[in-house]
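Tutorial, part two.
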Amino acid sequence: MTRFIFRLPDIGEGVTQAEIVAWHVQVGDRVAEDQSLVDVMTEKATVDMTSPVSGVVVATTGAAGEFVPVGASLVEFEVDGTTEVTEEKKPAAAAKTAEPPRPAPPAKVRETPAPKKPPAPAAQAFTTRPVDEAPLASPVVRRRAYELGIPLQFVPGSAPAGRITEQDLEEFIARGGNVAPVNDRFAKRHGVHDTKLIGLRRRIAEKMQEAKRNIPHFGYVEEFDMTELEALRRELNEDRSENQPKLTLLPFFMRAIVALVPEFPHVNSRYDEEPGVLRSYDAVHIGIATQSDAGLMVPVVRHCESLDLWGCARELSRVTAAARAGTATREELTGSTITLTSLGALGGISATPVINAPEVAIIGPNKLVDRPVVFNGQIAIRTLMNLSCAFDHRIIDGHDAARFVSRLRRLIERPAHLFLDRP
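Running the prediction step on this input gives:
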């Protein structure tokens, strides 16, 4: 057999290490060429490492959550010695010296089994009692049994008069006695469960911590009357063709942001704090905060300024579906200039969204509610929604943020303006 070492390749410009996310093989497994070995995550993306050879896994490097430098050994295989295999797929002799023969294992000595210990005293050695007879036990034993949810009535006692000692209680537990509470509704719970943050979850935690530590957030909440837009949205959905996606609120907000960017260019920006440079973009690349099984991801709808309402809805549906399925590309997950975040029907009354650094603004529609309000001098039922925003106070002053949200509100509450050349 020949030993083959698969080293972590250079999987991206500037990448010096990768985090082990999940192993798909273990030592002793026989794998085929191109079979998945391990998922690794860099600052850029998650990559599935596949086997370059067929063979038996004899060693792996790193547990989930650990980092492996580029060029370090990742997996070692034993492959068929008749196959010429090396790390670069060159003849084996040019890459590696054959290992010295291993000494034969020593002959096994047959050992005489030790005599088995006599079984522990059977339960009948203890004094038992009728079901209707109160058990005898000290307050300490009673408290211990209460905390464990053990009815003392069923614990045999070894002391005089069938009194239950602490040792009796511990032996009852050790023999697999009923330690479940009779009624666990109000039982005390003492479990502690540790979960190591790895992969995407760790990356999310680091990004959120960095954003909150470095960006002086300030929030702004405004109430929007969504009655007209909701009526328009329902009508458009009823009349849409088969090849048109179903409209949610977000495509309307996307088009409204596009309309306001020329007036508020700083909102559609990224701040590079090291050189102190604010980059404002003519293109509008809107990130969509999306919940997936792996955690929060922000796929990007690029060049929203070139998309109409239906185009925004179509691209939004496509990139969010790819993010949830884990198939989104690096370009689909990077480069946003402003982010929309919405929990839909779970949106709550208000929120405090965290800015997706290095952006400077995040917009968060909350859930719709029907409420009685004074409208045109009369009490009427209107569909209302709070909009929760956060801005980077280093870049955007409170006055400018209020003006931006006020203009956004005007467009959303009068949705016909979204289809005009000028808002």
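The CA atoms of residues 230 and 383 lie 8 Å apart. In part three we will examine how such features are distributed along the chain.
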